[in-house]
Design a protein that fits this description.
About 10% of the residues lie in helices and about 45% in strands. It has about 140 residues and is mainly beta. A hairpin with a 7-residue loop joins strand 3 and strand 4.
């Protein structure tokens, strides 16, 4: 779990400055569910499809996420990656910390993260973006 937490926080600080001023940023919030169940704990990342810098990630907690205007998104098209690590019930030793940690697997299918097919268009009117995923 310690390794996952490091990866999670690494994703959360994955904010690369793009062009334009911070006044262009839009706050966004929403709910994330998989097969009708709220994603308990995970990460949602928005990656510009234009190829320019400006990827932003934030935590999902109890099925909800929120990006403030200060950390928000510029208007445009984004590829979305959603990750939800779930414990398998097994344990392993973290090679970095030597701690015993739970083994996790991503509960969200790869088509919504590693090979994400999910895209959204963010405009000045879009403040809520929900994701109701199916396995």
């Amino acid at each position: 779990m310690a390794k996952f937490v490091r990866v999670l926080f690494g994703c959360l600080v994955l904010t690369v400055s793009g062009c334009g001023s911070s006044s262009d940023l839009l706050g966004i919030q929403g709910k994330v569910a998989l097969d009708g169940q709220p994603v308990e704990m995970g990460v949602v990342s928005f990656i510009p499809t234009s190829g320019e810098a400006g990827a932003v990630g934030t935590a999902i907690t109890n099925g909800s996420y929120e990006l403030s205007k200060e950390r928000g998104l510029r208007p445009g098209s984004y590829r979305v990656e959603i990750r939800w690590p779930k414990p398998t019930g097994r344990q392993t030793v973290d090679p970095d910390t030597k701690e015993t940690v739970p083994v996790t697997v991503d509960a969200v299918p790869a088509k919504f993260n590693a090979t994400s097919e999910l895209t959204v268009e963010i405009s000045s009117g879009s403040t809520t973006q929900d994701f109701d995923l199916t396995s």
